Amino acid sequence: MAPRSERALPLARSSHRVNTLLPPPCPIDALVVPPDLDGRTGANRARNVTAQIAANDDLDAIRAWLARFVDTKTTFDNYRKEAERLLLWSVLQLRKPLSSLTHEDLLVYQRFLADPQPSAQWSANGGRKHPRGDPRWRPFHGPLSVTSQRQALVILNVMFAWLVQAGYLAGNPLSLSRQRARRAKPRVTRYLSPELWLEVKTWIQAMPKDTDREREHYARVRWLFTLLYLGGLRITEVGSNTMGRFFCRRDASGVDRWWLEVLGKGNKERLVPATAEMMAELSDYRRERGLPALPAPDEDTPLVLPIGQSRKPLTRAALHRIVKQVFGAAAQALRDRGDEYAQRADQLELASAHWLRHSAGSNMADQQVDLRLVRDNLGHASLTTTSQYLHADDDRRHKETDEKHRIGWQ
C-alpha cells in the first residue's frame, strides 16, 4: 500500500452543515487527518479490550483492513473506494472521526451517496476519471444508483464488522440496518437481450477496414468480444492470461477438443471449452497479427494485443475502454435510426464487459445447456485435483457448449 504522504488535507472550519467553501478531498494515500478528527479518542473506540491490530487511529485501522485485499486488485480498489469516501465525508463534511459515527450518521451518509453535494467538491468534472495524484481527482463521478448505494453499505458493513472483531471499534453502526433484509431479485438483469446483442455484432461487423490499422482494430474488437461472450471470461481474465494456455486434448471417441485454461478470480483455475467457433476466430485474429494460426504450448502472447508491434498485455482499463466504446458507438447507431430506438440505445450505453459474461450464461441456459456445465464454464466452482480424471464429464461439457452456445458472426 502507498505510504502516507506528508501533505495534510485542508479542512473547513465549519458546522455539520454543508459548506460551499469545502476544500476538495484528496485520496487517503495522501491524507493526514488533524488530531481532533483522527479517531484516537473516537466515541465508538473499544475500551478495555486487547486490540488485534496495531492501529492507533482511524486511517491506520482502515489501512489494516485493506491490507487483507492487496493481492486481489479489483476487490482492493472497490473496498478502498468505499472506505475512502466514508472517511473523507466523515472528516470533511460531518466533522467527526470515523470511529465516532453513529447509525443515524450512516443513514445521512446513504442519502449523501444518492447526491454528493456540493458537487464541485465531491464529483469529478463531467464524470471524468482522473489519476489519484491529479488535483482534479474526486471520490465520486456523480450520484450513485440504488444498487451502488446498497453495494457501498455492504462493503462498509464488512469493514465495520472486521474492525469490531479486531478490537478497534466497540460496535458496528451499520449492524442495526435493515439492509440485510433486502434480497436481490433472483435473476440477472445486466445482460444483453438477443436483439440487442445482434445490434452490437452488426455494428462490429460494419466497422471500417480500409487501412491496416482499421483492419487490425476490427480484428481485435471481434476477437475480444468473442472471448468475453463465447468464453464467458471476466475482463481481468482476458488481460492476465496468454494464448499459450490454449491446449488440445483427444476425447474418448477420438475427437480433438481445444480448451483454454484460465487463471481467474482468487487465483482459481478452470477449463473453458474452446469451441470450433472460438478456435476459428482465434486463428483469424492470429493471422491478422502475423502469427501462426494456432498457439504454441506456453506461448506468452497476450490473449488480446495492442495495436502495432507491441506484445505487452492490455490493462483492464484499456480493455474496458474498448468495450465501452463499442457499446457507445452501437448505441449511437441505434439512436440515429429514430426515437423509437432511444430506450434500447440507453440500455446499451449502460452495458459493460461483465454484461457479456452474464449474456453468455443466459444464452447457455436458454439453449438448455446443463446448468452444472454452465457453472463450470463460468468458473463458479474451482478445479479440483480429481478433475483431470473426469474427462468424460469434460467432454460432454465441451460437446454441449460447442453445439448450443454460439456467437454466429456473419
Automatic annotation (TrEMBL):
- TM annotation in the entry: none
Tyr recombinase domain location is 187-402
SUPFAM superfamilies assigned to the protein according to its UniProt record, in alphabetical order? DNA breaking-rejoining enzymes (SSF56349)
- Which segments does the entry list as coiled coil? none
Among the record's GO biological process terms, what is one?
A: chromosome segregation
Predominant localisation class: cytoplasm
Q: Which superkingdom does the taxonomy of this entry point to?
A: Bacteria
- Where in the cell? Cytoplasm
Start and end residues of each Core-binding (CB) domain: 56-164
- Is Glycoprotein included in the keywords of this UniProt record? no
The GO terms this record gives for MF are:
DNA binding
Q: Which UniProt keywords apply?
A: Cell cycle, Cell division, Chromosome partition, Cytoplasm, DNA integration, DNA recombination, DNA-binding
| GO CC term (a single one) | cytoplasm
Any Pfam family hit: Phage_integrase
Query: PANTHER family this protein is in?
Result: PHAGE INTEGRASE-RELATED, TYROSINE RECOMBINASE XERC
**Name of the molecule in the record:** Tyrosine-type recombinase/integrase
What organism is the protein native to?
Paraburkholderia ginsengisoli
